[in-house]
Amino acid sequence: MSNARYVVVGIGNEYRGDDGAGLAIAERVRGRVPAGVTVVPCEQEPSRLIDAWQDADAAIVVDAVESGAEPGTLHRFDAGVAPLPARVFRSSTHAFGVGEAVELARALGRLPGRVVVYGVEGAAFAAGRGLSGPVEAAVEPAAESVLGDLDRLMNEEESCTNGR
Amino acid sequence: MPERRTIRTDYLARVEGEGAMTVQLENGRVEHVELRIFEPPRFFEALLRGRSFTEAPDITARICGICPVAYQTSAVNALENLAGVDVPEPIRMLRRLLYCGEWIESHALHVYMLHAPDFLGYAGAVELAKDAPEAVERGLALKKTGNEVMALVGGREIHPINVRVGGFYRAPSRRELRTLVDPLERAREAALETVRWTAGFEFPERRIECELVTLSHPADYAIERGRIRSDGGLDISPGEYDEHFEEEHLERSTALHSQLRGRGTYLCGPLARFSLNHERLSPLALEAAREAGLEAPCRDPFRSIVVRSVELVHACDEALRLIDGYEEPDSPAVTVEPVAGTGFGVSEAPRGLLYHRYRVASDGTILDAKIVPPTSQNQRAIEEDLRDVVGRYAELDDDELRDLCEQTIRNYDPCISCATHFLTLEVQRR
User: Fold this and answer.
1) Domain A6-163: homologous superfamily in CATH
2) Alpha-carbon distance B166 to B335, whole Å?
3) Which of B122, B147, B240, B381 is 20 to 30 Å from the Cα of A130, by its Cα?
């Protein structure tokens, strides 16, 4: 899907209430990302993630989750280090979820060098459009966090290259 | 055994989407089996009211992330039916090609990521990938090719936005379609390998007895057009659907259960298609079915994985045939003027018959819409199968029984995302 070295993937369904959070955050960072970063909305099932981050050195994935935390809570996981907690990433649009996509890619050696996964705690996933108040309020801080990560990842890369 | 036990899982793993299932056993006898599907596309039916008929394909495409083309196709079929428009052959062929892409993607996902692990003793595709990475890579490659077909014909957006009432916004050139030939030829090889692979699985002997319902067309293996037929002698046009099928509200559930009026449970999907239409598979797919030992009628839900694999071969083969014969249409779409009245449309989604009905005002405003997805239609058949399975294997412990129930449901590839949010499984023994 992309040859960019950095990719931000927002995953979800905007007709499922807060399930649209990942898409909304991806949309919020679009136009604010540095050159060379691709932003991909993914409304299909999450195994498409593996295509979305093909050839990328680093990927940031944003999804809605339902773990029992306060709605609007932003969870952040470094998926390169450990599997995503099943307790958090279970409310994906499809049961072959982000957690499975990450592990499948890991098993096949197709996980980018760095993968950061954000989970935005949703409140309501019933059919309907629009985010709930707490999730809507979390979109901008989440977007800033994603941009901060991108900045760090790209700087790390640069310092590694300089150090060679 | 304690007097009463309750088992609960957070969701039924590897069924696309979420729902809930309850099994109640009393003294080893099945008291109650219920598969709950909370949200049929009622929200979308409401959303459609008051919108222009030209918006129906875009809006209904959002119902399912796996089969948007099915929704678009049934929608345009219904609205063109109302207007009395038959699209020119090149446009119909393009639609069929787009639909083949969706079949490839959907079937590859189900066969490899969701269903095969059941037969090979793995908890899921991740565990399978550790031992058999080449098989899982083959599935992902197939899926990606289906994806490429959908992106090229359907438009490069997240949803296939290129479909409209009357045709397409833009028709691809012959040269563009030729770029799909190499990937599709590789996919066809992978699909043949898929048939050989799944045919070698071990199948418990199962046979379901309900009526099998599918679209049928004299010219081809029905996907985007045809009459509704059954092995019980049903042979009707889409406009007669409501006379022959009914949806029943069940207590304790917002789900609607479809049944054939006066005849009861029926099943649509790959088993029905293969059983009634196998003679119209491509010669290569038919040969693959023969080699796999598939016989029509096929009433074994476990063997649906082999049927899906055969349909993968057919979809790749058919896509290549359509590309080979493609002539660019004079215009990507024909004009469809609004007509007051009711239009009916059907098509064969990867999971089975998808029915749309629209009542439209003379200015093109949708007055009401009815959408019956295949999973709603199959729900009754799935429950009956579950009831039988639980009755036969009631002596298993709860974990084993739960696994068997999950497999039983997965055999039908229920796209519960079209219909529901959460899936819990509860086994109660009294």
Assistant:
1) HybD-like (3.40.50.1450)
2) 6
3) B147
